[in-house]
Design a protein that fits this description.
single chain, 337 residues, Immunoglobulin-like, 2 domains, eight-stranded antiparallel β-sheet, 49% strand, elongated
């Protein structure tokens, strides 16, 4: 299990309030009373420690949302929502933990928009890195006659990082004058396109939320953080940074030498799969402080001087390594006892 890193985002996040009601949830207060289930007797979202997730989210705090159809009552589907069924023209987004080819199971997680349980209709944007390398935008109206959904769109992963870990997903929805509905999809801030829903019985307003599906009762749970909804079909409320760095850098930790903890400052000039790891002088990984899709910006990460088993490391020299693709930068550190 990855150890939790304490993250402080230095650059300003822009929250758009100009369009009206905004819903935000980082799960830190443990209160999920505003969430409701699409299915009346389904399990609701829970709050768990970040250390329960498969990896630490850069920019996350101590808590994350956890969603799973534990009893298998809806064949693995869990769908929780915020807002009202009259909500229209908004963007929903969140950091979502994405699985890739999990052994012995299948798991999809993502976002929901325009959900109305009274009309039995919702649309979800999910990641399918299991059997197929794709993202999907589709509704819940499955026909046994045609063995297909009435609204179903596939997006290839050519221009995105199709790897397991934390990724930022965003779904903008707008009701058009002809009562069709436009859905615009983003993945790690890459625009994947806009798709028109004119399926029979489609909703023209509805609630937003998050979605998780496991193929069987032992399926993998969904993890979510930094959830937000704002009015306006293309407005981002998270991960909007000013003064984006021009290079990937790692600054000298402070204090150095240190005991028992030290802070490491990093800068990312472009988003993508990256990691911040601590190595000993033999080249062995001591612990991973952060791993996943890191958006452009400046961050401070605190290492508490423990390894990935929670044990305090011995005095000596250590190396902090920031890696992204073929890029790698590092700093030497000294722990004293």
């Amino acid at each position: 299990m990855q150890r939790k890193a304490t993250i402080l985002i230095l650059l300003a996040m822009t929250f758009s309030l100009a369009f009206g009601q905004v819903y935000t949830e980082d799960f830190e207060d443990g209160n999920v009373s505003e969430w409701q289930t699409f299915f009346a007797d389904e399990e609701n979202i829970q709050v768990v420690d970040m250390t329960s997730a498969p990896a630490v989210l850069v920019g996350g705090d101590d808590k994350v949302g956890y969603l799973q159809d534990i009893d298998g009552s809806y064949t693995g589907i869990a769908n929780v929502l915020t807002g009202t069924t009259s909500d229209v023209n908004y963007t929903v987004e969140a950091d979502v933990y994405v699985y890739a080819n999990p052994a012995g199971s299948s798991a999809y997680s993502g976002l929901v928009a325009y959900a109305d349980s009274s009309l039995d209709y919702y649309v979800k944007l999910v990641v399918d890195f299991d059997g197929d390398d794709r993202l999907r935008l589709f509704n819940n109206k499955f026909s046994m006659a045609t063995f297909s959904y009435s609204f179903d769109n596939t997006m290839p992963t050519t221009n995105i990082e199709n790897t397991e870990g934390w990724h930022h997903m965003k779904l903008g929805v707008v009701t058009n004058d002809d009562n069709t509905v436009s859905y615009t999809c983003w993945y790690d801030e890459v625009n994947l396109g806009t798709f028109i829903d004119d399926a029979a019985g489609h909703t023209t307003s509805g609630m937003a939320g998050v979605f998780s599906m496991q193929q069987d009762d032992d399926g993998l749970p969904g993890y979510f953080d930094n959830y937000g909804v704002t009015a306006g079909g293309t407005t981002s409320i998270f991960n909007t940074f000013e003064n984006v760095p021009v290079t990937m850098t790692i600054s000298q930790n402070f204090p150095n030498p240190f005991n028992p903890s030290t802070t490491i400052s990093i800068e990312m000039h472009e988003g993508g799969e990256a990691s911040l790891e601590i190595f000993n002088i033999r080249g062995e990984i001591v612990t991973t402080l952060a791993q996943g899709n890191i958006q452009p910006g400046s961050y401070r990460v605190t290492w508490d001087g423990r390894d990935n088993k929670g044990q305090v490391v011995a005095a000596g020299n250590y190396i902090a390594v920031l890696s992204k693709g073929n890029e790698q930068v590092s700093r030497n550190m000294l722990m004293l006892k």
